[in-house]
Every structure is written in structure tokens, then in C-alpha cells.
Amino acid sequence: MTDSRPATTVIVGAGLFGLSTAVHLARAGRRVTVLESGAAADATTAAGAGFVGLWAAGYAWYWNASELALEQAGIDFYRGLDAAGYDIALRDTGNVWLALTEQAVLDHLLPFAEHPLRPEDARLLTAVETAELVPGLDPEAIVGAFIHPDGIQISAPDAGLALADLARVEGVEIVEHTPVVELLTEDGRAVGVLTAAGDRVLGDEVVLAAGSWTNELLSTTGRELPFARVIASRLTTAPFGLGELPTLMIPELGGLWIREHLGGLTYGNGVGYEALAVRDSPAERRPDRPDLVEAMRDHLTPIVTELIPAAAPVLDAAEAVQGVVSYTADRRFIAGPIPELAGLYVVAGDNESGVTHGPGLGRMLAELIVTGESPFVDPSRYAPDRFPARPFADEAAVAAAMPARREVDARARVEQAR
């Protein structure tokens, strides 16, 4: 007699990566159980800034058409959530990169205009044109801008909760407040997991989607993913009557980004970041580092005031949200089978863009599990085995190996090395 029981997948982690994978697997006919150590979508996902765009079309110079496909999949997925009635605060505002100097136009904006993946409706803007699109922006504070009109904004916490609700509708079982402590194996294959309470949860395959905590569960396989884990901070002001505006990106100011949130602003840049390796800090679900917050507040208050003067009265009281993000050694995601153990898969390494790429990565991994291929992207770019089993001595070495964040900085490194 043929066993007609649907295949079962056990997923560890109920953030955007794990929940997206769960939804796509359930739609493909899998029975799916998701185990989460806390509440669903309440760790790194809940700290997401919520701007989604086509970053591979110029901004992230180290990505290509495969990442662009993941990004478009994310935009389409969130539009689908919104159309289905889930309140994720979706706004079709676009993404605008600002240049404060003529040099920044040369370094950052013109490469966007010349990029082979540039969307057809993307274009350069004058300072006056930019101010017409961005409520409250002082045109005297900038030289020019570049717009990708198709970018969207969502509330990452609300999107995470909506995704959990959708997963349940699709038949996924989500078990919260259930830490997983061990992989279960049999005859060289992953067959489930062991919870902290001693329960064995079995499946035909196991997916680790535990973010910055993934390596703890991988330790028995002999493989360590090349993560540099970082505390990331953002600030959110009280409302002050600001209208909807595009997400603003200012590469020349440490990657400063600004977006409207409920009539106020949410914003941040690298001043509010610190690698866990610097102080040998633990990877906490919701970090509390007020020193990083204050440093970023002090640094950004005069900058944001100059750009959007009406925000000045509320900036000093801006509240902070912090989370732990995981960068990879080549700034590409890690998603696919773990070669050391059959039936074990991973999706991790958000590279601070998990909100954008999570839905596409979940789709890709589900397709790999079900059919062995995923034609809409190049899965080899994300395969764990593109790295040796233990490629770096520590997280500081991972960070040192990462490509420069900006293409202009990468070119400068090459010139200095000559």
C-alpha cells in the first residue's frame, strides 16, 4: 500500500523567513509545523524598518538580477497581503536617493541612472522636483535625487503578524514559546527536532530559519554559517503632521534612511550599529543598548533638522527600536540544503534586508524542497556550500571579508591596493 500521507516539514523560527517558507510549502501541499522560541514575528522581524525596494538596480552593487527577482517577489507578495485585506500599512511611495553634494551625484546617483537593471520609470530629479515629491524637504539642503517609483513601505511588525495569520489560514501549525535545543537525526538524515521541554517534533525535512541563532542549532553538523551579527537601531518620532513621503536614502551619510511613520518619522544610520563581536555581546531577541541610541540621536538630529526642518521639535524625544541583524561574508543570503546532513535546510543571513527579500527567499526554498529547483532565481548564489564548512575564525573575520557597502568605496579600495 502506498503511503498517501502529505510530507511534513518542521521549521524552526517564526520570523519573516520561516513564515514565508511555511506559507509557500503549505500551498504546495506540505504539512508544516513552525516552532518559535518566543512569540511569532516578535524578534528581528518586529524591528524591521519596513521599506521595500529594488535594491539590486543600483544601490546594492554586489547584487544582480537574481536578487532583483527576489525583491520583486517581495513587493508582489506584500501587495497580495494588502489586497487580501491584511492591514500592513502598505504605501506606494517609491524610494528616493538624495545627494547633498555634486560629488554624491557622481558617486551615487549617476550609477543608478546608468545601471543595466534600472526600472524604466526610474529617473534623476532636480532639488526642486524632489521637494515637490517629499513633503517638508528643504530643497536648499540637497543638490539632486534619483527615484525608483515602484518601491513600497509597510509596517514590518504588522506584516509579520499578518504573515503568521496567513500561515495559519493555509493550515500551518505555529507553536510559540517553544525553544528548540537539538536536531534529531537518523541514518545521516535530519528527522526532526528536540524542544527544551523534551518533546520530539518529527518531519520529513527540517528548515532552520532562526536568524542570528541558526549556528547554535547547526553546531552538531560541523558547519558554521559565516555571519557577522550586528545590533541595529532606528528612531521613531511622535506625529507632527507630516504627509506621506517616499523612503529617503542618503548614501553619503553612513547609509542614512528616513521614512514617514504615522505622521512622524522613523530613521537611522550606521552610528546606531555595533557588531556583537566588539563586546562579545549575546544575541538578544530585543537588544537594549541606549548608548547606541543616544550616539545616533546626537549625530542625526542636526542632519534630519536640516533636511526636514518641521521635524526639529520632535527629534530629541524620538523613541528607539533595536534588533540583531546578520550580515554574510559576501552580502548574499544563505538559503538551501546543508550538505553535511540530508533533509536539513537553512534560510538565514538577512543582510539587513530580510523584509524585502524574505517572501522571495521563502518561495525559493519551498520550491527547492518540493521540486529540487527554483527557476525564478539562481539558487546557487545562496547555497550554503558556496562556503567551506568553517570558513572564518570568528565573526570579526567575516566582517573583514565583506565587500564594501558602497561601490565608490569598493573602487577606492582597489585603487589603494595598487
Task: Explain this structure.
Strands 4, 5, 6, 13, 14, 15, 16, 17 and 18 form a nine-stranded mixed β-sheet that branches. This protein starts with 7 loop residues before the first strand and ends with a helix. The protein is α+β, with helices and mostly antiparallel strands and 418 residues long. 31% of the residues lie in helices and 23% in strands. It folds into two domains: 8-47 and 157-227 and 330-399, FAD/NAD(P)-binding domain (3-Layer(bba) Sandwich), CATH 3.50.50.60; 92-152 and 228-328, D-Amino Acid Oxidase, Chain A, domain 2 (2-Layer Sandwich). The protein has helices at residues 16-27, 65-83, 102-113, 127-133, 156-169, 214-218, 276-279, 290-307, 312-315, 354-371, 395-401, 407-417, and strands spanning 8-12, 31-35, 51-52, 95-99, 123-126, 144-148, 152-153, 173-175, 180-186, 189-195, 200-202, 205-208, 227-236, 247-250, 256-261, 264-268, 274-275, 319-328, 334-337, 344-348.
Number of domains: 2
Would you tell me which CATH topology of the largest domain applies? FAD/NAD(P)-binding domain
Largest β-sheet summary: 9 strands, mixed
> Helicity level, as a percent range?
25-40%
CATH class division of the largest domain: Alpha Beta
Task: List low-pLDDT spans.
Answer: none
CATH superfamily of the largest domain: FAD/NAD(P)-binding domain
Question: Structural class, judged by helices and strands?
Answer: alpha+beta
CATH architecture of the largest domain: 3-Layer(bba) Sandwich
What would the average pLDDT be, to the nearest integer? 95
> How far do the termini sit from each other?
69 Å
Shape category: globular
Helix segment tally: 12
